[in-house]
Amino acid sequence: MPTITLIAHTGETHTVQVEVGTTVMEAAINNAVDGIIGECGGCCSCATCHCYIDSRWLDKIPVRGDLESEMLEFASSQAGPNSRLACQVEITNDLDGLVVSLPETQL
Amino acid sequence: MQKILVIGAGHGAGQLLDSLRRGGCEDSITLVGEESWLPYHRPPLSKKFLSGEMSQERLAFRPENFYTRNQIVTRLSCRAVSLDRSAGCVELDTGEWLPFDRLAIATGARVRVLPMPGAALGGVHYLRGIDDARRLQGDWADKQEVCIIGGGFIGLEVAASARAQGKNVTVVEAQGRLMARAISPAMSDYFLKTHIARGTRVLLNAAVEEVLGDNGRVSALRFSDGRELPVDVVVVGIGVLPNQELAADAGLASDNGIMVDEFAQTSDPRIVAFGDCSNHPNALLGRRLRLESVHNAVEQAKTAAASLMGQKLAYNQIPWFWSDQFECKLQTVGLSEGCDRVVQRGNPQAGKFSLFCFRDEELLAVESINSAGDHMVGRKLLVARVYPTRQQAADADFELKSLL
After folding, report:
1. What phi, psi does B291 have (nearest 5°)?
2. Where are the domains positioned within chain A?
């Protein structure tokens, strides 16, 4: 199982094991990591699972879709080039070691 | 230590528990749920869960250890049958009485049952919970002719899932357009065309009068004009009724839902109610509503949690919904009912557009297809009560964001 590290806005880090095929959003929810809400359950409808992907990993993740990009424009915390909705980032074996930072607020 | 009792274990109840513990509530909490499952996400039931793309484990609102870690006692597979307010107890169908100091009612809604002969035949399904979805999956696996009664959100999502699995699908809707309660006529028309283009037969203004059967199982539907439609499986999605009886029978004010104020308080100060079962005031829209949506359940749960902790967090939300059907992601914000002018932004032929629904100069709703940006800006505009002109709304080059 790949291991990923989630870094909360406060600096608190959580290193967790995640199943391939699940998402970064689920990793945060299932491990009680604050900073991800995921109100819509992971179908790219609410923009409350905004996260920042460590730039070293960006080329290992499929690029974001139009819908996701549009949602991110309205995320509560400023989106950047490495912003993603965590529900759209699926864990693969290539992402073992992935580092993700969480924004200050999702609402 | 005070006792908080939560009746109902849907999405809103899950949010309430999260908000209570996150908010520092140290009271004892007991959750009573009629289903055998801890709170889970219902929306995928008619979509990715039904199609088999999503496992049940992934539906969970929170993992199982959330409840143990937060010292929440869960009583699943039991139903609350009566509420004794003077004694401060709720009776379960097991015969037990659970005492409370404060009570949260999140009993949700139940499906409206087909009111006609033959409705109880085998092969006639409803979709509300995991067990319903599993039964449907198992039943239609080897069957071909599927009829959906009711062209609302659930019916059409199930229809899209059935088509995606290669079944022959007929949608029967009693009204003259699809999703009439939730979206504008122009958007209904877009969905009608979309479903027809994907091979679904859609019968509007069609009234089913009887479900015909053979050996205890559905074989056909008979319409009011005498026509018959042979079917293997029927899925009924004709709306829901609020589960208000527990409250109403105990004398709490109820009328199309349990009446609450902007703090989710019922007419008894120890008792809150929220989610699908509640009839609540919406200050932004200036009227009372009863909504069946995740957003409402979540936001009202936060309000109810605050009230249970002796704080005040007024519910102040513009409703939003979503639906996924084939390649269309519908996102709506606001309520289009009563709109007199609809302006189109974007390109329906390209499957990416929004309808801005106005009443005079006031923007009432934004309905978007694969246009999340319009949806998100619509949410902000409606909350801020900042309305674009119809020309601005129609001009895709005009940055609506600039109005905020």
Report:
1. -115, 150
2. 3-101
ipTM of the complex: 0.93
A65 touches B at CB < 8 Å: no
Report CB contact under 8 Å: B376, A67.
Answer: no
CA distance linking residue B260 with residue B115, whole number of Å:
30
What SS3 class is residue A88?
helix
Distance CA B182, CA B194 (A): 17
Domains and CATH numbers, chain B: 3-110+241-308 (3.50.50.60), 113-236 (3.50.50.60), 327-403 (3.30.390.30)
B63, B66, B322 member nearest A45 (Cβ): B322
Are B30 and B6 within 8 A, CB to CB? yes
User: Are residues A22 and B58, on separate chains, in Cβ contact within 8 Å?
Assistant: yes
The whole-angstrom distance between residue B14's C-alpha and the CA centroid of its chain comes to: 15
Of B58, B59, B329, the CB nearest to A67: B329
Nearest alpha-carbon partner for A16 in A97, A103, A107: A97
Cα–Cα separations (whole angstroms), residue B129 to B56, B64, B71, B168? 11, 18, 26, 24
Give start and end residues of each alpha helix (H) in B63-209. Answer: 64-69, 130-140, 153-164, 185-197
The class (CATH top level) of A3-101 is alpha beta
What is the C-alpha separation between B349 and B288, in angstroms, rounded? Answer: 37
Measured between beta carbons, the chain B residues lying within 8 angstroms of A45 are 322, 329, 331
Interface mutation vs chain A, best among B11, B15, B38, B41, most A CBs within 10 Å: B41
Per-residue pLDDT of chain B (404 residues; tens, 9 = 90+): 899 999 999 999 999 999 999 999 999 999 999 999 999 999 999 999 999 999 999 999 999 999 999 999 999 999 999 999 999 999 999 999 999 999 999 999 999 999 999 999 999 999 999 999 999 999 999 999 999 999 999 999 999 999 999 999 999 999 999 999 999 999 999 999 999 999 999 999 999 999 999 999 999 999 999 999 999 999 999 999 999 999 999 999 999 999 999 999 999 999 999 999 999 999 999 999 999 999 999 999 999 999 999 999 999 999 999 999 999 999 999 999 999 999 999 999 999 999 999 999 999 999 999 999 999 999 999 999 999 999 999 999 999 999 99
> Best interface-test mutation with B: which of A26, A34, A37, A70 has the largest number of B CBs within 10 A?
A70
- Does the distance separating the beta carbons of A43 and B294 come in below 8 Å? no
Residues B183, B188, B194, B196, Cα dihedral to 10°: 140
The β-bridge relationship of strands B278-282 and B258-259 is parallel
Q: What angle do CA B273, B282, B31 make, to 5 degrees?
A: 20
Determine if the pTM surpasses 0.90. yes
Put simply, the answer to whether A45 touches B331 (Cβ < 8 Å) is yes
Q: Among candidates B331, B345, B350, which has minimal Cα distance to B397?
A: B345
